[in-house]
Amino acid sequence: MKKILIKDIANSLNLSKTSVSLVLNKRGDENKISKQTQKKILDYAKKHNYVPNSLARGLSRGKSETIGLIIPDISDDHYAKIAGHIEKKANDYGYVVLYASSNKDPKNESKLIQSMINRQVDGLILASTQQNLEDIKLLKKKKVPFVLIDRIYPKIKTNYVLVDNFRGVQKAADHLLNLNRRKIGFVTLKPGLDAMRQRLLGYKEALKKFKINSNNSLIKELSNVNYEHEIKESLEDLVRFPNSVDAIIFSTHYLTSLGLRELRRLNVKVPHEVAIVSFDELGAFDLVDPPITSIKQPGADIGDFSVDILMDEIKGNEGGLDKARMLEAFLIVRKSCGAL
Amino acid sequence: MKKILIKDIANSLNLSKTSVSLVLNKRGDENKISKQTQKKILDYAKKHNYVPNSLARGLSRGKSETIGLIIPDISDDHYAKIAGHIEKKANDYGYVVLYASSNKDPKNESKLIQSMINRQVDGLILASTQQNLEDIKLLKKKKVPFVLIDRIYPKIKTNYVLVDNFRGVQKAADHLLNLNRRKIGFVTLKPGLDAMRQRLLGYKEALKKFKINSNNSLIKELSNVNYEHEIKESLEDLVRFPNSVDAIIFSTHYLTSLGLRELRRLNVKVPHEVAIVSFDELGAFDLVDPPITSIKQPGADIGDFSVDILMDEIKGNEGGLDKARMLEAFLIVRKSCGAL
DNA sequence: TATTTATACTAAATCGGTTTAGTTTAAATT
DNA sequence: AATTTAAACTAAACCGATTTAGTATAAATA
What we know:
Oligomer: homodimer
Mean pLDDT of chain A: 92
CATH superfamily of the largest domain in chain A: Response regulator
């Protein structure tokens, strides 16, 4: 019942470690190990349930069949979904996922990247804080295969899979505008993240195309640490005279949840008085009162493509896949804008 | 910029690998390495940003400062939350988490356990399929530290952190009974899982205490693979004559979501005609129409306690913590039972 | 028959650490 | 002066694989 090693197999069969290792790695034929010997080894290994020690293998091969996944927070719905897809896809390739949450702390993220590399991960998928330019540059320099998801560094060329935040919010705004909402509030986070910046720009662009001047008092940029409190005041301000919005776009799902609670407290009728669109979904948004019109990010695609690209990188296929993908987010129309 | 090794430090300072290794592991004093030498080593290491190769260290130490987490599905809200807490807590102990989803497949789970062990994880946290008794026994025999969460093997003694499913559902049923609901349907999954069995028993016990005979046609046990379809028929059957339930308990959050959609389709008024309690929460259940009364599992405690216990095991503290904890789930009253 | 070539292996180095069992030098003790 | 002891190190084995550079034997060729 104890763990069996290559050495044990070799000794038991009066063979060398080399032969055993070669055969177990399916390199018996090319190394002219006789069929009989191969069979003996394979049988013995199977019978005694041999499984290689991944650390030893990783150490000597310099790789580990493991990819690292660093995300802001695994308990965030959005990232949990993506992580699920990444894991499934990675497994298909025979890879295991080592994951970690940065908790949105760049220092933390930096440490995690180091730690992953020391664990010889063969590649990284990274939803970065976007405040670790140096680390990213280092990854490039060291030629560590990696793919950024969700958040990129616009200043340098990297592999990435990204959702078109700009167009996404535009779709949200267009939807509202087409339903004749004209005073559209935008509730978002301070743009430490490029994604947030893009979403804000998308909002402004949509208004512009409708020849509406964007009004800064309708734009609420909340602090990343204190948004739970700030959102209350912001919503009151949006809803009350003189702003008196007739619609609000929330730039991410947790702001939507918080915002909805607040709107209830303020007794604002959705969609009657204020229409709502959420950028990004939460599982039960179709069950909410009213069901929330949202811009849904293609989580499965983000996961799948990022792994595909990473594997391509790892295998060194230079000419293969596109190494950068911009995906469309799509509008899911529900009742929160009064369209149904 | 290339990776620096212990050997490099040793060579540069004209010292042996041994000394360098000892000092870097804070074992310089006990090994009588002079203060000066220690300082030299430490300074050099810091300056050149030395970080040990975790694989090599793991291989030679036989451990890895990594714990394995195997759950049914990381994209499930419940497990994502738990995983988040486990990760945070493990980090506090200086550990990294290697995680994997079994996708509810016992074979898969079995493979993952093997794979984790080969990666020299120092311990495992496992939300098992409950169909791998042999693997669990093996873990015990090999003295691999592990903790079961959420799902246990009643036949053998293990460390575990568990929610009291029996009492949890009882609370749900009691709540309904106290609101004078008497025909309470129970929608659950076929009891491959002990948790499901306990929940069913809790339901029956609650009825019994109210001297209500439990009626099998009010109990819908759906198949694990096909519940999405089966739930439609089940709900129709519950709602229609002769069953005509006035309340339904869903034994897990995704059944609740599906069920609510179905009830809408059937135009059933909640809570007017049928009251609802969900075992287990989903993020937006407070925003749903009507807000869903639920039994909430203490995700943070599950995560924290399981890591505490595991660390205790890993460190070999026999007499330390309780190695088994049964946690209370608590009722969150919202409007779906008409109580508010 | 001597030489080449294939076949079927193996010894030993290597990956980057940790650890055991010393060794060398100087100071302290008898 | 001879012996112990302590201080400050180090050589080499080890963890469990992979991999390079062979070797021994038999068969084929010249």
